[in-house]
Amino acid sequence: MARTVWDSTVGKKTVMAVSGLIMLLYLIVHMIGNLKIFFGAGEFDHYAHWLRTIGEPFMHYEWTLWLIRVVLVVAVVAHAISAYQLSRRDIRARPSKYVHKKPRAGYATRTMRWGGIILGLFIVWHILDLTTGTVHPGFRPGHPYQNVVDTFSTWYGNVIYIVAMLALGLHVRHGFWSAAQTLGAGSRTRDRALKTVANVLALLLTAGFIAVPVGVMTGVVS
Fold first, then answer.
1. DSSP class of 36
2. Which among 49, 57, 116, 199 has the fewest CB atoms less than 10 Å away?
3. Is 113 within 8 Å of 171 (Cβ atoms)?
4. What distance in Å separates the CA atoms of residue 51 and residue 48, rounded to the nearest whole number?
5. Cα separation, 208 vs 205, whole angstroms
6. Which band of pLDDT confidence, cut at 50, 70 and 90, is reported for residue 200?
């Protein structure tokens, strides 16, 4: 039964919608946490430490954080695989020959496709930069505030992050409405409200995430 659902186009779109909403919820919480950097190093570092102690003493140190990471990895992988397979299925479903010039993909389709690729690459870089410190010269474990300031004190750190957050905004704007349609929440009377929510979420997330590098660049965060 599960295999049949997964093999269907509706099943893959549902997986994309559910996994996308899981990631969206995480992004909202993550953005709010990031904004704590404007309250100073002590507040931000304390928040970063709290993330590792969620659920104690029932949960061991970092267990809850690792559980969240596992859920996110599963959501990202499921989202990416579904998107790729749906894209390949769409290409195969097109006629092999066209009388007229082959139609180009729509704006939303191109945005989602390239935005997804940009975000996938950004996730890898972001982990290597601020989690493991692999690509971060001078990375100091246990000093998240200073690591963030160091990253956004470089031109390339700002460019990579801001471009990725703009891609995220467009991805959320199109993806939220699409997920609502897939899960049956859309209708003729609710479409305008759903599109408004999608636009507001995209704007808030983009502005909220970009506020951090802008804060470092302007000296508000130092």
1. G
2. 57
3. no
4. 5
5. 5
6. very high
Contacts of residue 80, defined as CB under 8 A and 6 or more positions apart, other chains included, come to 116, 120
Using CA atoms, how far apart are residues 205 and 47, in angstroms rounded to an integer? Answer: 19
Side-chain-side CA neighbours of residue 219 (13 Å): 0
**pTM listed for this prediction:** 0.88
pLDDT digits (tens, 9 = 90+) for 48-106: 999 999 999 999 999 999 999 999 999 999 999 998 888 888 777 765 554 455 444 56
Q: Looking at residue 102, what is its pLDDT?
A: 47
Q: How many whole angstroms separate alpha carbon 35 and alpha carbon 145? A: 11
The answer to whether the beta carbons of residues 208 and 34 sit under 8 Å apart is: yes
Alpha carbon distance 180, 194 (integer Å): 8
